[in-house]
């Protein structure tokens, strides 16, 4: 029988909707600066939100390059 995953204790409490939204927007737009403009926040705020998401998941989600 498969073991049920307790998402709350795994990652559920560490994920924030704003981090997911910033990540999704950055992927859609192709850069953090474009995502920041669309979201009406600073580029460092988007970068920090994505870094928080990466920390919560324990994986690198985006390659950071000057070209976006």
What level of helicity do the residues show? 55-70%
Secondary structure class reads: mainly alpha
The number of helical segments is: 4
Sheet of most strands = none
Which whole number gives the mean pLDDT?
A: 85
Uncertain runs: none
Could you tell me the radius of gyration in angstroms?
14 Å
- Percent strand equals under 5%
Describe this structure in words.
This protein is mainly alpha-helical. It is 62% helix and 0% strand. It has 4 helices and no strands.
List keywords for this structure.
68 residues; mainly alpha; 4 helices; 62% helix; elongated
Nutshell version of this structure?
With about 70 residues, this protein is an all-alpha fold. It is about 60% helix and about 0% strand. The model has no long low-confidence stretch (mean pLDDT about 85).
How are the secondary structure elements laid out?
Blueprint: H1 7-12, H2 17-29, H3 32-39, H4 43-57
């Amino acid at each position: 029988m498969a073991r049920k995953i307790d998402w709350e204790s795994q990652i559920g409490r560490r994920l924030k909707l704003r981090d997911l939204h910033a990540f999704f927007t950055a992927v859609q737009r192709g850069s953090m600066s474009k995502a920041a403009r669309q979201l009406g926040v600073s580029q460092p705020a988007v970068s920090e939100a994505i870094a928080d998401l990466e920390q919560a998941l324990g994986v690198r989600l985006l390659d950071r390059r000057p070209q976006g």
